[in-house]
Amino acid sequence: CHTAGMLTPNGKEYAQKIPREELTHLILRLLQAWKEPLSNFNQHIEHHQELPDDSLSKAKQISNMVHELKTGVEKVTEKMQSMGIISNSLNGMASPEGTGLSISNEANMMSDSDFIHCFRRDSNKVQSYLKILKCRIMPENSC
């Protein structure tokens, strides 16, 4: 996976020990890391004439959802910064330069099944990290 070089907590227990600010940064980095590979994947599958239209539509929908999620996390981050929950040190961290990853052709050279496996793995991480972050910010949710 092209994100394998990113240092992420190995398990929920470790993720719960990461400070809110670092966890937020990690979420943004993972989402940013998938922007270009998902775009390339969409272009790749558009050339597969044998794929049904709904598969193409789903791939585009996933890319749009990742983009919307990243935008939403950025807005929540800004709100957290304005409330003093986290510092302003995350500014610019969601940019490609701030991810610490150089997207090589590794994501482009993966088989479709490997690509989907990696995307699912990282999506599960983001989902877990968001749940942890939510529980830390709003403990009244009885997490």
From TrEMBL:
InterPro entries: 4_helix_cytokine-like_core (IPR009079), Somatotropin/Prolactin (IPR001400), Somatotropin_CS (IPR018116). The keyword Secreted applies. One of its GO terms (cellular component) is extracellular space. Pfam families: Hormone_1 (PF00103). Signal peptide: none annotated. GO terms for molecular function: hormone activity. It is found in: Secreted. Transmembrane segments: none annotated. One of its GO terms (biological process) is response to nutrient levels. Its main location: secreted. The keyword Membrane does not apply. It comes from the Eukaryota. Keywords: Hormone, Secreted. Belongs to the somatotropin/prolactin family. This is PRL protein. It comes from Neodrepanis coruscans (wattled asity).
